[in-house]
Write a structure and sequence with these properties.
With 534 residues, the protein is mostly helical. 49% of the residues lie in helices and 8% in strands. The chain has 3 domains: 150 residues, Herpes Virus-1, CATH 3.30.40.10; 32 residues, no CATH class; 254 residues, Four Helix Bundle (Hemerythrin (Met), subunit A) (Up-down Bundle).
Amino acid sequence: MDSDHDIYDMDSEPEQEEEDFFSDEPIINSDNEKDYTILKDTDIHQLINDDISKTITILSVKRDVALALLLHYNWNMTKANEEWFANKLEVSKAIGMLILEKEETKCLDSDNVNCGICFDEYTVDNIAFAACKQHPFCKGCWECYISTSINDGPKCLVLRCPDPSCNMMVGESMIVKLVCEKDKLKYYDYMFRSYVEENRKIKWCPAPGCEYAVEFEIGSENYDVICDCSNGFCWNCLDEIHRPIECDTIEKWKTRNFEEAVNMKWILTFTKKCPQCNKSIQKNKGCMHMTCVCNYDFCWLCLTKWGSCIGGCNGFKENKEVKEAKKNILRYIHYYERWVSNEKSKQQALKDLNEMKNEGVKKLSELHSLPETQLEFIIQAWQQIVECRRVLKWSYAYGFYLPEEDKAKTQFFEYLQREAGAGLERLHHCVEQELLDHLRSTKKLDYTEQGSYKNYELFRSKLIGLTKVTGNYFDKLVTALENGLIDVNPEEYKRKRELQMSNIAVDDSGMWACDRCTFLNEDFHTVCQMCVVD
């Protein structure tokens, strides 16, 4: 039997070309600067057809066999081809394809044949076979069997002969000829989703309601993906974009947050640790005499050995372990509070960004007779704020897991984080407060020498400068964290900073004025933040 034999037999029906169910629209082109491609449903359909067609051409097999191979190897066409050429017989058995020296179909002794399911007698025209060509069933039973399998779920993609002793496949061509249009659509939907969910190079965008998929270039070190629905996520863990923090740190941090929220109150209220083995113990009786599983007897109130504290543990004494536990909790709360606050600020900034895109820019353009392209700097400022809030938020998770004993890295990290955070606050304040003055204005710009246009130009220059400076700060922070702070030399930074600041006069408010442009800089800056833009 030839390897590309028909996988079903209906003598009464002439052979027809198999239906190409998927669309022929071209795949969208990916941006050369990106390591991924956003796929619409039509793009996925085209990829499926392309992979099947290539497999048919390379292996010289029928479409049913090519599809069964790709499904068996999770749409890994390279592996499917390699395995086929390496051991064709074993692979054929695995996918439910029968290989015989010549085509053999069960001999039908008469014009009427008994169905193997309902046992009624039918003419040969109403009988069909699976790939085995040995077990005849009537069309009605076939339709019921296939339809039930489709409605049971995606296992219908690897459907086998109804005979319990047979493992031969029921191919796509037979399925689409026997079922109704509704079941056919459901079958192809399973295939469509299988291509994404079992393909190691493609994943769905995790945003609720988004129907785009993303094809990723395996081997890329940058996992950041921006879907066409505007959702940003990490390809590796499907969480939100968290560069420069590693996925493992994100997972630990989120697990910690969940555990703290669920367990901390209960543990602190109802349990204490055994002074000897350090296991948590719940008091379930009235007596203060506790016996741990390690057989250590102690007092529930003061945690000292039982008998040594009778009548003497009523006075307050600071416990070293309790003090350390409180310190750890306070440290966690410190980082968690800032993580949450920056997340809230990011969400608000994202909302403000969308409002500015949809309404604010248009309003300013109409009010001041300025083209919207000249107001793009406002959108860029908001986009910078959203991105920086995201980085700053996750930097607190990074800081929480920095070893406390590594003082050099901790100090350097906090220095970079403080510089970046301060720059971001200035930018955010400028956009939120000073921009509002221009949005609230109902007067057109006065282009005279002393008019309002001069103030607008000053604001524009300031905002562009702050956007660039803030971006530079965060670029340094991201680079340092991605490198694991390996180039840390906080003493050298401290020495240079003190040297630079020695020639700068800082007033009581913590600000210093630039000799060149008179711009007021905060004391932690060593160079003027307006002049640096030049």
